[in-house]
Each structure stands twice: as structure tokens, then as C-alpha cells.
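Researcher: We're teaching a course module on how sequence relates to structure. For the next exercise, students receive a sequence and then see the predicted structure as C-alpha cells, so they can try to spot secondary structure elements on their own. Here is the exercise chain.
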Amino acid sequence: MGVVEYWIVDPLENKVTVCLLNQSSYKQTVFIEDQRIISRTFPELTLTAQQVFSA
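Model: And here is the predicted structure for the students to work with:
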């Protein structure tokens, strides 16, 4: 389908996984606590995993 980036938000483990398309497979990066989420789609984003779950 060519989805460049998608996120998996896991409230049970308080983590955000960002999956980036790399040719034909996805590279996953996990963000927890006060780690700033890095997004290729939204480079100006200044959101941490902790902020996602406290909203």
C-alpha cells in the first residue's frame, strides 16, 4: 500500500512505536517516557511518549 509511516500506541506498556517504510519493510523505533517522538512525516513535532499517555 506504500504507507510511509504509521504509529502503534500501546497504552498497556506506555510506549509509542513509529514504523517507517524502508524499501519493502518497516523499521520500528520504540519511544517511552520522556523520549521525544521522532517522525519523518511530522518533523516539527515536539511530543514525548509520556505526553501522549497523559492527555
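Model: If you want an answer key for the exercise: The longest helix spans residues 49-54. The mean pLDDT is 94.
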